[in-house]
Amino acid sequence: MSTLKYLSGFGSEFSSEDPRCPNSLPKGQNSPQKCPYGLYAEQLSGSAFTAPRCENRRSWLYRIRPSVGHKPFSPFPGVNVTHNWTETEPDPNQMRWNPFDLPKPGENVDFVSGLNTVAGAGDPKTKQGLAIHIYSANKSMKDRCLYNSDGDFLIVPQTGILKITTEFGKMQVAPNEICVIQQGMRFSVEIEEPSRGYILEVFGQHFTLPDLGPIGANGLANPRDFLTPVACYEDRNVAKYEVVAKYQGKLFVCEQDHSPFDVVAWHGNYVPYKYDLARFNVINSVSFDHCDPSIFTVLTCQSEKKGTAIADFVIFPPRWSVQEHTFRPPYYHRNCMSEFMGLIFGEYEAKRGSFRPGGATLHSIMTPHGPDFNCFEAASVEVLKPARVADGTQAFMFESCLGLAVTKWGAKTCQKLDPEYYQCWQGLKSHFTGPK
Ligand SMILES: [Fe+2]
Fold this sequence. Notes:
Layout: E1 6-8, E2 14-17, E3 40-45, E4 58-63, E5 74-75, E6 95-97, E7 115-123, E8 128-137, E9 144-148, E10 151-159, E11 162-166, E12 169-173, E13 177-181, E14 187-190, E15 195-203, E16 226-229, E17 237-247, E18 250-258, E19 263-268, E20 273-276, E21 297-302, E22 309-316, E23 319-321, E24 338-345, E25 360-363, H1 373-379, E26 387-389, E27 394-400, E28 405-406, H2 408-413
Parallel strand pairs: 9-17
Antiparallel strand pairs: 1-16, 2-19, 3-4, 4-19, 5-18, 6-25, 7-8, 7-28, 8-15, 10-13, 10-15, 11-12, 11-14, 13-20, 16-20, 17-18, 21-22, 22-27, 23-26, 24-25, 24-27
The chain binds fe (ii) ion (FE2).
Region (Disordered): 1-32
Pfam family, one: HgmA_C
Family: Belongs to the homogentisate dioxygenase family.
């Protein structure tokens, strides 16, 4: 059980001091001529200076040395991170990936070198789009951190606990929890076993909580369940500390002579955070028919078009299913959005057995999808008593208004794409009774 402490809230104005240095936050101003304890003041801006107040995000960090004290960057080789969306031909087929590989024993792969881009769209230079990555690692990052100039990472561990050190403090993120590390925040990941998961990266906008409309002031993911680390600094000189930057779709590395996690105190509303998916307050139909899966949205990253997401993070959590005279599994569907799904554990209700934890599916724009033959036949005749759905299961979806391209790694290199996926719908037969 982790003993880490956290601050609770979403988008709040937080402040934190490492208890070893009381009163390390300057009083009444951000940038005094001399900061307490001889610290440097550094602002991290997560929005334009002039963004409306409700969207304005920034934090002030009080650190032993400013971030700028590093040597020049050079390319970081050997990683399958890309935003080249034309390296494979467009493919409208339904896609299903078997579980992505963990590193083999003897390979030494950390969180950074184990990043692989599977799909995406758009461009961080113009600040619109997203990328979906799979991480797969079997060793901790040692004297190495990562930051992302391009956008925010929403990290979904599937197997293995992530012990994440950030400039704001430490957080531990287990499967069935997620974390968001926003643009520019340096972090390092330790693991204790081979670990794998999914990353949704968004460019240009930050994740927000979805509006609740008639649901009211409470429900879905509640703000107080989002947890932000507390200040925890290390004053550590290192012969060669590597700072890896994701910049315009590529990784670069530079060296410095000290740990970047030397922030003694900080305040602001631009922070990393984690969330336990078990805290999600599920809202759904208690009469008949389905609410659309938007009812399961945990976090959203909105586009300029009202109500339309660059990416929604949606989960399908354990819940009761009580609808009367209703086909209860997900409906057959063609969508103007792209739907990338993953499975953390258990069995997704619409496709038992074939969609496995650590794997994925992609149903692209207007590509038909829905329950497989077995699911349809069973659900069409089941007795409609109140029933538990998805116990022991956590499936999720990254849904985007953009058309996603699959990378060469996703289509070929990973060797996990299942060419037989289409077969699961081939048995669907006509039940048409004909005109009376
Ligand atoms: Fe769908």
